[in-house]
Amino acid sequence: MAKSKPRVKVPKTADAGEVITIKTLISHTMESGQRKDKKTGDLIPRKIINAFKAEFNGQTVFEAIIEPAVSANPYFEFRVKVQESGEFKFSWTDDDGSVYEKSKKIKVA
Amino acid sequence: MNLDRRQVLALGVGAAVMTAIGLPGVAVAAVGDVEKAIAEFTKGAEITTGKVVLSAPQIAENGNTVPIEVTVESEMTQASYVDAVMILAAGNPNPGVATFKFSPMSGEALASTRIRLAKTQDIIVIARMNDGSCYKDQKTVKVTIGGCGG
What we know:
The complex is a heterodimer. Chain A has strands at 6-9, 13-14, 18-26, 49-56, 59-66, 75-82, 86-94, 99-108. Chain A is mostly beta strands. Helices cover 20% and strands 40% of the residues of chain B.
């Protein structure tokens, strides 16, 4: 399977107190565990991203608990109010235990 | 082997019954599952309508990726903010879709994502405020091609 590659869109600069929009996407098949192998008829085991978390300067700002009903290549868009410059840290947790991470800096004037 | 008319008929009926039994193999969430999930989320709080708005297409051509957006009316301050939003799809094999957790730092309680829908069904969103009160919105999405299983 292709390696999961996270992509995040965060504005580079913002005014203090501004509410910014963050868009995230990670490539992942999100195998639901409901599908059957067409040749053997066996269920394909579930393998999804089950949690997503966004932190800003060490504080959790947004979290998502994800079920198989979220589409492949899970996409999330959410808002954050920024008061100071800092770094966003995003993490995605896979069913197999691996964690994919990405961070983005923002400058607040 | 010679089959007379009666035997042929009996065979036909038997086959029809078999197909009928075979079909529910496509699992659909029981109504009880949805209620249980809601009860767990609200912790017994009364659910009122308003404040939370779900935007979803009326007709989804492809059930594999249905874009949805949830907004909750809130000041998003330390004193009053949206704690979490749960999304349920009543007609999927598992009703749970996702739960979003917000914080006062969110600024605005808005989140959007793309979800899978197995068939035409209701999507239910429930927002829980930090004081425990719950709000609900619901929309029916018509699905042309199902999104679960192949």
